[in-house]
Amino acid sequence: MIEDGAAAPKQKTPLEYMLGVMNDATADEARRDRLAIAAAPFMHARAEAAASGKKEQKQEAAERVAAGKFAPRGGPKLAVNNG
């Protein structure tokens, strides 16, 4: 139990723990490798998510143009005359 005035020990996040073990030179190399593989998705973005290809760039450009004066018009307003 923590006494009054004593600071609680800082809890590490799972990622901080993995990075600590990875950087520990005395830890087992196989364990360090497994933790590096597990931590990688949280440290680095996927390559395909970072850059879009030519097709995606063309599609984005077409959507930007289509939103302006070349946007599709709404259909005709239909009115009912019941009288």
What would you note in describing this structure?
The chain is mostly helical. It contains 4 helices and no strands. The protein has helices spanning 14-22, 29-43, 47-50, 54-66. α1 (14-22) packs across α2. The longest helix has 15 residues, at 29-43.
Rg estimate, integer Å? 29 Å
- Uncertain stretches of 5 or more adjacent residues: none
Mean pLDDT across the residues is 82
Helix content: 40-55%
Total count of strands: 0
Biggest beta sheet attributes: none
Class by SSE composition: mainly alpha
Can I get a quick summary?
This protein is mainly alpha-helical and 83 residues long.
Write the layout of secondary structure elements.
Elements (H helix, E strand, L loop, with lengths): L13 H9 L6 H15 L3 H4 L3 H13 L17
Helix pairs in contact: 1-2
For this entry, give a set of tags.
4 helices, 83 residues, mainly alpha
